[in-house]
């Protein structure tokens, strides 16, 4: 069974809904979920918040958090996850922000660095993955795979 199918099954079993706040993945997490039969039982809404202002306006990310830590940070991913869960009134919220490349990198935040936030019933876990310079599309695909594998682990322990 594909990872996304396992996630939909777990969410249905637990009576939970999910919402995604995506930046560098540009909706790919949501699109992957929608590939699964019965996705409509667990998904009502998600956001692609590519611009900082969109993160602030739609997800209630604090401008001070972006200024202090940068938009690619676990702190912003955390606020994205909480913000999307609140906006969607869902039990599960996922925030993804990163640098897919080929530009936008710094010494401290290289191409392929992606930060993730997972909110389950208001409890948040954050992660950073360094996928490396594997190409823009592969960073996005690797991010989606990480999201679904992490969701399975977290939901099994929720």
What does this structure look like?
By secondary structure, this protein is α/β, with parallel strands linked by helices. It is built from 6 helices and 5 strands, in the order αβαβαααβββα. It has a 5-stranded mixed β-sheet with strand order 2-1-3-4-5, with helices on both faces. β1 (18-22), α2 and β2 form a beta-alpha-beta unit. α1 packs parallel to α6. The longest helix has 21 residues, at 136-156. The radius of gyration is 14 Å and the shape is globular. The two termini are 21 Å apart. The mean pLDDT is 97.
Instruction: Count all strands and give the number.
Output: 5
Strand arrangement within the widest β-sheet reads 2-1-3-4-5
Order of helices and strands: HEHEHHHEEEH
Task: Give average pLDDT, whole number.
Answer: 97
Structural class: alpha/beta
Report the C-alpha radius of gyration, rounded: 14 Å
Q: Report the principal-axis shape.
A: globular
**Individual helix count:** 6
Helix content: 40-55%
Q: Flag low-confidence runs.
A: none
Q: Beta-strand percentage?
A: 15-25%
Q: How would you sum up the major sheet?
A: 5 strands, mixed
Whole-Å distance between the termini? Answer: 21 Å
Keywords:
158 residues; alpha/beta; five-stranded mixed sheet; 6 helices; 44% helix; globular
In short:
The chain is of the alpha/beta class and 158 residues long. Helices cover 44% and strands 19% of the residues.
């Amino acid at each position: 069974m594909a990872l996304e199918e396992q996630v939909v099954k777990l969410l249905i079993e637990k009576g939970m809904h999910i919402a995604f706040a995506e930046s560098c993945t540009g909706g790919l997490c949501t699109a992957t979920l929608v590939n699964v039969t019965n996705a409509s039982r667990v998904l009502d809404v998600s956001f692609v918040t590519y611009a900082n202002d969109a993160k602030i306006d739609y997800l209630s990310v604090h401008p001070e958090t972006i200024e202090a830590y940068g938009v690619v940070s676990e702190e912003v991913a955390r606020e994205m996850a909480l913000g999307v869960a609140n906006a969607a009134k869902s039990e599960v919220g996922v925030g993804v922000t990163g640098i897919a490349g080929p530009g936008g990198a710094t010494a401290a935040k290289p191409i392929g660095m992606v930060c993730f936030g997972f909110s389950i019933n208001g409890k948040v876990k954050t992660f950073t993955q360094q996928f490396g310079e594997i190409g823009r599309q592969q960073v996005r695909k690797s991010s989606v795979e990480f999201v679904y594998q992490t969701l399975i682990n977290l939901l099994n322990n929720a």
